[in-house]
């Protein structure tokens, strides 16, 4: 059985469920419960999983009201997603403020480098799209300047830098609120031949 997920109330319910699941995942990563409690909770989670699995939906197509809700970076209905809330900056570029959580930990107390790369890849793509040059990632170069802590507000920014034919480039970074750069990224994006170019 699948259901159409288009209403505001359903979106809100999915966002709330995903956020509660993030809380659960954080708790799993940090728990020191004894074996009996872990077994009991596992059975409860299994029962909930079976309930939700009875109503799996089909893959959402691009442009469908729910298609970004499952995205790994911005998907409000994806429990693994941070999720990052991106805003467009007047004059070009995109920006977000975010507090990463324990769920995305790599080294103790720090965000996994792969998570930083994933988030910057998405942010760069949004910056390219905002410039009317939507494309798919062809290459991504990451420079880790300093560790990204979780539980601390950071600022993410990106901007389209140039385009040549179907190729577009963008730069981005994760920084402390005082501007200290933690991670830098440069991405090359290629507009698919099947995608209408708007820029």
Key words describing this protein structure:
single chain, 3 helices, six-stranded antiparallel sheet, 199 residues, alpha+beta
Could you describe the 3D structure shown?
The protein is of the alpha+beta class and 199 residues long. The protein has a domain at 87-190: Hotdog Thioesterase (Thiol Ester Dehydrase, Chain A, Roll). 30% of the residues lie in helices and 25% in strands. The chain contains three helices and six strands. It has a six-stranded antiparallel beta sheet with strand order 1-2-4-5-6-3, with helices on one face. Strand 1 (87-88) and strand 2 (94-99) form a beta hairpin. Residues 1-5 have low confidence and may be disordered.
Percentage of residues assigned to helices: 25-40%
CATH architecture of one domain: Roll
Q: What distance lies between the first and last C-alpha atoms, to the nearest angstrom?
A: 41 Å
By secondary-structure content and strand pairing, the structural class works out as alpha+beta
CATH superfamily of one domain: Hotdog Thioesterase
What is the residue-mean pLDDT, rounded to a whole number?
89
Helix-strand string: HHEEHEEEE
What would a concise description of this structure say?
This protein is α+β, with helices and mostly antiparallel strands and 199 residues long. The protein has helices at residues 8-30, 35-53, 113-130; strands at residues 87-88, 94-99, 136-144, 153-164, 167-176, 181-190. Strands 1-2-4-5-6-3 form a 6-stranded antiparallel beta sheet, covered by helices on one side.
SSE topology sketch:
Blueprint (H helix, E strand, L loop, with lengths): L7 H23 L4 H19 L33 E2 L5 E6 L13 H18 L5 E9 L8 E12 L2 E10 L4 E10 L9
Antiparallel strand pairs: 1-2, 2-4, 3-6, 4-5, 5-6
């Amino acid at each position: 059985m699948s259901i159409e997920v288009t209403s505001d109330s359903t979106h809100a319910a999915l966002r709330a469920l995903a956020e509660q699941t993030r809380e659960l995942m954080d708790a799993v990563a940090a728990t020191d419960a004894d074996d009996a409690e872990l077994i009991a909770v596992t059975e409860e989670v299994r029962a909930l999983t079976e309930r939700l699995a009875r109503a799996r939906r089909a893959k959402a197509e691009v442009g469908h009201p729910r298609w970004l809700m499952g995205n790994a970076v911005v998907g409000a209905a994806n429990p693994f997603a941070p999720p990052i809330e991106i805003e467009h900056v007047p004059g070009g570029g995109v920006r977000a403020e975010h507090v990463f959580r324990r769920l995305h930990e790599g080294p103790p107390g720090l965000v996994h480098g792969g998570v930083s790369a994933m988030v910057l890849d998405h942010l760069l793509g949004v910056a390219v799209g905002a410039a009317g040059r939507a494309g798919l990632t062809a290459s991504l170069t990451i420079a880790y300047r300093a560790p990204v802590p979780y539980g601390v507000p950071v600022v993410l920014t990106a901007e389209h830098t140039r385009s040549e034919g179907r190729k577009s480039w963008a730069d981005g970074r994760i920084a402390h609120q005082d501007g200290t750069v933690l991670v830098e990224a440069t991405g090359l994006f290629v507009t698919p031949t099947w995608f209408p170019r708007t820029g």
